[in-house]
Amino acid sequence: MPGKLIKDIKKYKYVYLMLIPVLAYYIIFCYVPMGGLIMAFKDYAPRKGIFGSDWVGFKYFLDFFKDMYFVRLMRNTFMLNVYDIIIGFPAPIILALLLNEITGKKFKNTVQTMLYMPNFVSLVVLCGIVVDFCATEGVINDILAFIGFEPNNLLQNPWLFKPIFVITNLWQYAGWNSIIYMASIIGINEELYDAAYVDGCGRMKRLIHVTLPGLVPTIVIMFILRLGNIMTVGFEKVILLYNPLTYETADVISSYVYRRGILEANYSYAAAVGLFNSLINFAFLVLANWLSKKATDESLW
Questions:
Q1: How many CB atoms lie within 10 A of CB 7?
Q2: What is d(CA 215, CA 186) in angstroms, rounded to the nearest whole number?
Q3: Which residues cross the membrane (predicted)?
Q4: Model confidence pLDDT, tens digit, residues 155-187
Q5: What is the tens place of the pLDDT at every residue in 18-61?
Q6: What are the φ and ψ backbone dihedral angles of 54, each rounded to 5 degrees?
């Protein structure tokens, strides 16, 4: 086996050279920092360092479980991801299928460019636009006032936070995420389409019986990976959009950890909550992979 690997490296040396920066990135920024997880089990003091700080065991884990906001944080984080999966996961697939049906090359390129561009908008700029649009004197309220509704700041309504968060995510990432499905469609054997056409299948039947089955492996893998982040919500967008009036529905684990762990310099608490969150995500990933393997024979491992 080692001899075969060495031979393979010599044969494809430039491919392996291209792999080095990727490996270096994950080793330096993903695996090396994992040593800091020990901080979750210590009463970390910067002057003592991680290894010099006193052991406290599971103290910070228990503090989080007993926290009065624990249930709210878990519920908000989980439900925000569920809504995002229900609405946001199918959107790139649908976009890819629609784009694949466009025959005009120039029009197709124009549409693709328009769909991909929101991904490159800065998150701060995006949230600024959302805040302005949802303000009492914003565009959305102008439209609502025109049809007879009373203007109000939409971001101060706790029950509107999740829809606003999910819809803006959809606008920003759906087009970009459709790229991987477009690549999968391009990789489908053209002979299958020709055979379906000869058998009398129209465009819709070719989509149902050829394109969608060809996309299934990619869809399954992407869905498993998405479930592996079921308890992850980036705190940046949340803290840019939420306020004390919407904490009840908007406050998630990452934003709470940012306030308690970072702003209050309680680093051990932040590490403990982050580790707990990662373990839940890992459990969902393993479960989703197992169920997928049983149901479709497609899995990550």
A1: 10
A2: 10
A3: 14-41, 78-99, 120-140, 160-186, 207-225, 267-291
A4: 999 999 999 999 999 999 999 999 999 999 988
A5: 989 999 999 998 888 888 888 899 998 888 888 888 999 999 99
A6: -75, 140
In a domain, 40, yes or no: no
pLDDT value of position 202:
85
Distance in angstroms (rounded) separating the CA atoms of residues 250 and 162: 7
Domain that holds residue 95: 58-296
Report the C-alpha gap between 184 and 298 in whole angstroms: 15
CA-to-CA dists, residue 129 to 142, 246, 267, 271, angstroms: 15, 19, 33, 33
Lookup: tokens for 290: 């197992």
Q: What local confidence, expressed as pLDDT, does residue 138 receive?
A: 86
Tens digit of each residue's pLDDT (9 = 90 or more) over 73-88: 999 999 999 999 999 9
Number of domains composing the chain: 1
> 19 in a domain, yes or no?
no
Q: Is the pLDDT of residue 9 over 90?
A: no
Task: Return the CATH number at 114.
Answer: 1.10.3720.10
